Amino acid sequence: MAKTTLPGVLRSLSKQTDGAIFAVLFAVIVALAAINWLAVRTTVQDNVDARFDLRTSAATDKLAIAMAAYRDAVHIASDRLAATSPMDAPTWSSYVRSMRLAERLPGLATFGGCEREGNTIKRQVAYSVGEEVALGPDGAITLPTQATQATSSQTSDRVFTRADSATGRSYLIFLADTRQPAICAYAIADVDRFVHDAVGPLIHDLTLTISLMDDAGQPTPIFDSLSPRAPAEPRPPAEYRVQTSVPYANKPALSLTFTASHEFAALRGAGVADWVLAFSVLMCAGTLLAWALTINVRRRARALREQEALDKRRSESRLFSVIESVREAIITIDEHQRIQIFNPTAESIFRCSAMEVIGEPLSRFIPERFRDAHYHHIARFGQTGVSERLMGRGRPLWGLRADGEEFPMEASISQSTDAAGKFYTVILRDVTEQRQIANALQTSRNELEKLTARLRDVREDEKLRIARELHDDLGQRLTALKMDAVMLKMSLGEHSSASADINRIEQSIDGMITAVRQMAADLRPTMLDDLGLGPAIEWFAQDFARRYGVAVDVAGARRLPSIPPALSTALFRIVQEALNNVAKHARATAVTIEMSCDRDIRLRISDNGRGLPPTRPKPDSLGLISMRERARLLGGTLDVRSPADGGTVVTTVIPLPASAPTEASPG
């Protein structure tokens, strides 16, 4: 016989207790689920019944209001017809529009006046919303005898239906009291539009059939919300049904039958009870599953916590390895801006060890004049919720080494939050060397610009000197040689055998004189120094037109003020280079040079040539570089573009020196 130990008994009792508790809990949940299902289903069913009754009552009331509106309208119109008979069509249309009957009467198709001859009523005048709907064949109808034999306590107002076989549409015709001896009003309503305008939103998920009651109480079907429907298609089974009637002139006129299928209940929430039951079943299954997994989950949770702690230690180790190895300084501070992490690069930049600064305020490494602003900057950054951004945009940042030396730096800041609170990490770089290199580069660039300007001035001076020597020395010598040739020719006589040779010598000398003058003008036109920029440009334009056969138009040159020599030279050279480009590349037939001056001198050179190539094969050609450099050295700009309609436009804007006049000199 096996021995039963106390621990085994306790474990057995524990299992039995757990099973009993689980069984009781399961039974309670099932019972509560069944009770909830019954309660919810009963409540939902009551709500669906009430909603169906409310909707059908509201639809009946709205149709009654619409019928009453038609009756009032034809009565008022009959009085108007009697007062102003006969009434022409424009006056009638104006009356109908002023009464806004097309808006007030749902489904209105035609509203008119008719005259009576015995039992026959004929159209007299009518207004139609769309195409006019006739009273009957030939615009007339014949009333039954009883329709005109109402007692004094009754009214002979009538409503009857007419079907249009051509369109398949049904109409309601409303007549005012037909006992009036001569004239009355009538209204014709499209049945489909009448119903949908009046109660369309109320019956979108219901089925409505309408019959018109005649004088004998016999119904005539006029509307079915399920039409058109295939002949063999059955009507949906009716779960809900109610019949009501709408009076007209104190007599039943419309018989209404409302029905709804089981889908109405489903749409209105009858399925909630089934969902409650399903949810309860799921709760039972979930309880069983939860009970079975509770202990396993606890064990796994403990193992997971241990694994997370191990992973965290490993992650921190890897993070610190990265922080230790990066070339940028990394400093992490807490929400009180006290240092928590200080990597070796930061130790090197700030010249102190991490052991000295952990727990110290970050302001220790910020110059005193920036400390307050820096503290508030970090506080505002913490409130933005932005994870990362650069620091010091638009202005330099300065750090403070442990020995008191200030240095420029670049920095970015990020923020993160964990269980211990909010932390900010600053990644910074010492840019002292970069600043020195940038300053040296700028100094070199400035010196190069000065050298370039000086070389340009020397070149212009040398061109001026050579041009003057060509003009004054070589030109005079050639002129003297020409005079000697003329005198020699005169002394020998025209009939001398050497006369032809002397003529050739004269022609050669003339060609040399012309070439020397052209060379001197190309180097430096004397009128640029003697007469100024405007006349020099006009002369050069005329010479260019003569040499290349291109029409050149100059505008504004004579209105230029006195311009400093350096500025005049630069603008003349820009014009010279631009026209040379036209001659070499543009294939133009016309060039326009426009000049103006206020605070700046504006020069615009345009041609009708082929423009810049689409791929711009030489965007940095020496000619363009020279033109841009001349403008830049004088503080101006030069833009070259090709308009959509072709050609090339060179635009130069150079500011006038402060001492230069801004108006043209008189004369």
UniProtKB/TrEMBL annotation:
<protein>
    <submittedName>
        <fullName>Sensory box histidine kinase</fullName>
    </submittedName>
</protein>
<dbReference type="Pfam" id="PF08448">
    <property type="entry name" value="PAS_4"/>
</dbReference>
<dbReference type="Pfam" id="PF07730">
    <property type="entry name" value="HisKA_3"/>
</dbReference>
<feature type="transmembrane region" description="Helical">
    <location>
        <begin position="275"/>
        <end position="295"/>
    </location>
</feature>
<keyword id="KW-0472">Membrane</keyword>
<keyword id="KW-0175">Coiled coil</keyword>
<dbReference type="Pfam" id="PF02518">
    <property type="entry name" value="HATPase_c"/>
</dbReference>
<feature type="domain" description="PAS">
    <location>
        <begin position="315"/>
        <end position="368"/>
    </location>
</feature>
<dbReference type="InterPro" id="IPR000014">
    <property type="entry name" value="PAS"/>
</dbReference>
<feature type="domain" description="Histidine kinase">
    <location>
        <begin position="469"/>
        <end position="658"/>
    </location>
</feature>
<keyword id="KW-0808">Transferase</keyword>
<feature type="domain" description="PAC">
    <location>
        <begin position="393"/>
        <end position="443"/>
    </location>
</feature>
<keyword id="KW-0418">Kinase</keyword>
<keyword id="KW-1133">Transmembrane helix</keyword>
<dbReference type="GO" id="GO:0046983">
    <property type="term" value="F:protein dimerization activity"/>
</dbReference>
<dbReference type="GO" id="GO:0016020">
    <property type="term" value="C:membrane"/>
</dbReference>
<dbReference type="InterPro" id="IPR035965">
    <property type="entry name" value="PAS-like_dom_sf"/>
</dbReference>
<dbReference type="InterPro" id="IPR003594">
    <property type="entry name" value="HATPase_dom"/>
</dbReference>
<dbReference type="InterPro" id="IPR000700">
    <property type="entry name" value="PAS-assoc_C"/>
</dbReference>
<keyword id="KW-0902">Two-component regulatory system</keyword>
<feature type="coiled-coil region">
    <location>
        <begin position="434"/>
        <end position="461"/>
    </location>
</feature>
<dbReference type="InterPro" id="IPR011712">
    <property type="entry name" value="Sig_transdc_His_kin_sub3_dim/P"/>
</dbReference>
<dbReference type="GO" id="GO:0000155">
    <property type="term" value="F:phosphorelay sensor kinase activity"/>
</dbReference>
<keyword id="KW-0812">Transmembrane</keyword>
<dbReference type="InterPro" id="IPR005467">
    <property type="entry name" value="His_kinase_dom"/>
</dbReference>
<dbReference type="InterPro" id="IPR050482">
    <property type="entry name" value="Sensor_HK_TwoCompSys"/>
</dbReference>
<dbReference type="InterPro" id="IPR036890">
    <property type="entry name" value="HATPase_C_sf"/>
</dbReference>
<feature type="transmembrane region" description="Helical">
    <location>
        <begin position="20"/>
        <end position="39"/>
    </location>
</feature>
<dbReference type="InterPro" id="IPR013656">
    <property type="entry name" value="PAS_4"/>
</dbReference>
